[in-house]
Amino acid sequence: MSIDSSVTESGRRVAAITGGGSGIGEATSRRLSADGFDVAILDIDITRAESVVCDVIDLGGSALPIRVDVTSSESINLAFAAIHSWRKAPDVWVNSAGIINIAPVTQCSLDDFRNVMEVNVTGTFLCAQRAAQEMIEQRYGRIINLASISAERAGVGRVAYGASKGAVASLTRQLAMELGAYGITANSVAPGPIKTAMTREHYTPETTQALESMIPARRLGNVNEIAHAISFLSSEGASYVNGIMLTIDGGYLAAGVGVTGNVQG
User: Among 28, 82, 156, 189, whose CB has the most other CB atoms within 10 angstroms?
Assistant: First the structure.
């Protein structure tokens, strides 16, 4: 079934975004609405989701706020029931919900480690699994997971976060392998240092300055740049893109030595 034959009666496709009430998830909700999707905005903070929904509707879009705890199968099932009652099974599912804990490896508590893994990995798995079950029925779908450059490059204090995002990247490849025959693609995006509420909380001015000096673009990215990448992976133009981790980091992972002889980058 092509995406054109699975649109709603209004002629619009359906996308669902977890963590859609803030940060990258919020920017993605707005971007996919602008692309012509009816958007289900899922967040554990329903007030934030409702605020984004109001903005989307004011701009002529169609959106539904849903409270969801991505670590709970029951909560996820209720979210899918709400989406069905509102429109239809999602054509696109974006797993943007995530948390971070900053602690040295010798001081990260087991509870903190488990909490990050539960939200970032188990939550992504549960949502992707449930979305895949419905997408198999319509033989079409796009699953996009939020990984991170921390999946590829270690950072001080990121033992839980880095491990979780490495797992998300691996999970995405597994999804791609098993779902591709059903017309479903599964990809992840790996943001580099991005200006969000989360990074503002954890980045000191010294951290930001150090990062900017290592990034060839010489700046942190913004949430809209990630949302545009997710927009592409959600599109028909990405129908043969499957199982990748798309890095969006201003060249951070590609960078090496900044000075060679008399040549300075």
Answer: 28
Active site residue 182: no
In order along the chain (265 residues), what is the average pLDDT of each group of 10 residues? 45 93 97 98 98 97 98 98 97 97 96 98 98 97 97 93 98 98 98 85 84 91 97 97 97 75 58
Q: Report the CATH number that the domain containing residue 51 is assigned in CATH.
A: 3.40.50.720
213 lies in a domain?
no
Distance between CA atoms of residues 265 and 260, nearest Å: 9
Asked whether residue 163 is domain-assigned, the answer is yes
Q: Which entry of 161, 182, 240, 252 is annotated as an active-site residue?
A: 161
Q: 254 lies in a domain? A: no
Q: To which residue do tokens 């499957």 refer? A: 242
pLDDT (tens digit per residue) in 170-226: 999 999 999 999 999 999 999 999 988 777 777 888 888 888 888 999 999 999 999
Query: Coil, strand, or helix at residue 40?
Result: strand
For 24, the domain range is 3-193+227-249
Is the backbone of residue 251 left (phi > 0), alpha (psi -120 to 50) or beta? left
- pTM confidence score: 0.92
Q: Sheet containing 37-43: which strands, arranged edge to edge? A: 63-67, 37-43, 13-18, 92-95, 141-146, 184-191, 245-248
CA 121 to CA 119: how far, in whole Å?
6
CA 182, CA 160: separation in Å to the nearest integer?
33
